[in-house]
Write a structure and sequence with these properties.
The chain is mostly helical. The chain is built from five helices and no strands. The chain starts with a helix and ends in a 26-residue tail after the last helix.
Length: 193
């Protein structure tokens, strides 16, 4: 089973993004270095540490979903005929678990996070797209697989974008990069008539 070279290049670009985020998440997860005795670490904590930790967690959640989804894409592109059923089951489990962890990370009350509903929709949509790719890949349908890979990539971008928009992460400030859309405002609940 062969798919277009352009699709493979797009997948490689997405994986490069995952690797770029990797060192950041690893550094965030590393334990803090011990402070020497008599230091003022306790007297001078990092300002807004809880908020900064939450932002770091948002970046980590992007890595969480990138790894299993790009793993599936590379596996599908790497097989000449069709994806074995056992491999498909392994990839499906990894993706489902990653998406479930994103769902758990979302606030229980969507009104507390205007982007929560958008993020939930993106997660559900990506799961449907990934399941479609698994189906076509195990059936060995090259034309359908190529289309499904592009669909999964779009779904992945949707999830990443929903995380960026609703997480409160600082906007990119490098000249030449487009501005990210602002988080949609919370709509007040109207009383029942």
């Amino acid at each position: 089973m062969r798919v277009s070279r352009s699709v493979g290049l797009v997948v490689s670009s997405v994986i490069c993004g995952a690797l770029a985020f990797g060192p950041t998440s690893a550094a965030a997860a590393a334990p803090a270095a011990p402070h020497p005795e008599g230091s003022s670490a306790e007297e001078a904590p990092i300002p807004n540490a809880d908020a900064l930790n939450s932002l770091t967690g948002a970046v980590q959640s992007i890595v969480t979903v990138l790894k299993p989804v790009t793993g599936l894409l590379k596996a599908v592109l790497g097989h000449g005929e069709k994806l074995p059923e056992a491999d498909a089951a392994t990839h499906k489990k990894a993706i489902d678990e990653a998406l479930k962890s994103l769902e758990k990370a979302a606030p229980a009350d969507s009104s507390a996070d205007a982007g929560a509903d958008l993020k939930a929709k993106a997660i559900t949509d990506l799961k449907v797209r990934a399941d479609g790719l698994l189906k076509s890949a195990t059936a060995g349908e090259p034309a359908v697989v190529a289309s499904d890979i592009k669909s999964v990539l779009t779904g992945l971008v949707n999830v990443i974008s929903s995380i960026l928009v609703g997480s409160g992460l600082p906007p990119a400030d490098l000249d030449g990069l487009p501005k990210m859309p602002k988080q949609p405002p919370v709509q007040p609940k109207l009383p029942d008539a």
